[in-house]
Fold:
Amino acid sequence: MTTSLPKHDWILHAYFDGELEPSEKMLVEQELAKDHDARVALEAWRRQNEALQQAFGPVMSEPLPSSISAALAARPAVVRRWFVPAAAVAAVLAILAGAYVVYITLASGTAGGKVFADTALSAHVVYSAEVRHPVEVAAAEKEHLATWLSKRLGHKIEPPDLSRQGFELVGGRLLHEDRKPAAQFMYEDAGKRRLTVYVAANSTSRETSFRLQEKLGYTTCYWLDEDSGYAVVASELKSDELLPLARIIYESFEKQEG
Amino acid sequence: MDFRSEIASLIPHLRRFARALAGDASLADDLVQDCIERALRKQHLFDETRNLKTWLFTILRNLYISGLRRSAHETAAKSGSGMGVSDDAIMPEQESRLALSDIALALDRLPSAQREVLLLIALEDLSYREVAEITGVPVGTVMSRLSRARGGLRAILDDSDATSLRRIK
Structure:
């Protein structure tokens, strides 16, 4: 754990917040008996906590504003998009119509997602094999890369940081999907294994959770969000290695979306 | 318990955190509303092996941060020439401060990176690890922010005691 704090100080915080093992706790308590300043600090923090609880605790029992209860009761947009028309039809054709809509939803959703995953896969196959020109803008110009692609895609997009997982950014390029701009980021680990992240507009009017596809020796993990589709492709990673990376990438894009 | 009822059970916590983070009651409840809407839309992306509480706090915190960024842009755009940059932003805030307790005032003066860490730990009783996950920084950074926040709060509160004494005199 790297921290600029003196060891003494953060141990005291950890003690106060109940983060220590029983044995460590005992040691701190022995020290405390001899350390007047530390006892004063603990007392000040205890008063801070108390003041916070007193100031904001009552918020928890305030009556819920109707805007919040309404948000909680609302049906999610995805479901509404498909099932409201179905309900109208169902008035006439009850069960038959309902079943048909469900069938269409499933069929088109799967197909749309698969097409998206295949596009991401093609882009990976073509560009990850490049030795001299794998990317248009290299990682050295990361800020320019992010600004440029954000401008073209029409929303903020930054390459996720995967360095803690051992993958360094190589760079990125502008691509196209369905007549719209799309982006690809490329990463490489110490063993020269390459991974690409593909982002394009979601043209399927459908959202999906994480889906995995193994094809031609490549593993693709993709998900379709409200406006965008995302895919992570790698050739030498199995799905159990790729999925945790995909989650980190998902969270990173979530944060950028705000 | 289904997803919706689980969210419902956490709303009091979300509201408390949002209120302390944003300072303003209606802004805080807007954040909670946006957070719930977003969580329901993104339900398909929630990893069920993970903690729903930390997931919701993460969403709310990110909404707050991107709101801050947006209003910073708007303020910058409005002030144009650079004259009187923050006059608009500060005046109404100071008025509404009259009704707030000392601790809320002190919180308001902390940098938001320190404020969120302090609130998640001291008010919401989350672990350092959970807070690291929510704010997307290493545990060491959480601890140094926490330490600075507690130190800052002490300094501000002591200072304001001194100021109010001076005022009385």
User: Anything to note?
Assistant: Confidence is low (pLDDT under 50) at residues 1-5, 78-83, 98-109 of chain A.
